Amino acid sequence: MHILTISGSLRASSTNTTLVRAIMRLAPSHMTFTLYEGLADLPHFSPDLDGDEPPATVRTLRQQLQNAAGVLICTPEYAFGVPGVLKNALDWTVSSGEFSDKPVAAISASPLWGGGENAHASLLLTLKALGTKVPEQGKLMIPHINKKLDANGDISDTETRQALTGLLETLAQTITAASDK
Ligand code: FNR
Asked: Which PANTHER family does the UniProt record give (predicted)?
């Protein structure tokens, strides 16, 4: 089963992107992944651009979402919300509907104690608006992320690794249940 992963951070040494890469290595072999790398290239969403011929970068995002049975999003928190680039990408799918009924895992990670709880809540609201399926165990907030990744970018914290293993299992089960219908 194929999963599209999205990191909400554009930063070269992003902990969220490092975490996404670690999650892809942690996953069982029946789960395959593409890391979406087009966030910075999407134009600012405007309904005026969202006509019969949307920009090529938008078509690529939509195609990658269509090709994926599920999506895993990992985001930092900026000023109590999700980074604008992530919200922008999600807004580009409102009219085209790729997220409708799509199983999604939603992770926020922060160096602070809260784990990006405001961004997490905001992301869940947007995912609800898009009609995604986010299972209860597909939601995870990771505080102190900088202390939970080792120098190789692997997850050094046992509890976090276990939580992520459970999250991946739940995402896979949600995808299987959705495809059985
Ligand atoms: C932050 N950061 C942050 N953290 C948080 O928990 N709540 C917040 O509201 C904010 N706000 C915020 C605004 C701006 C402009 C920056 C640059 C940073 C800290 C943020 O969580 C931290 O820089 C993370 O390391 C960013 O994630 P990546 O880039 O490491 O994935």
From this structure: CHROMATE REDUCTASE, NAD(P)H-DEPENDENT FMN REDUCTASE LOT6
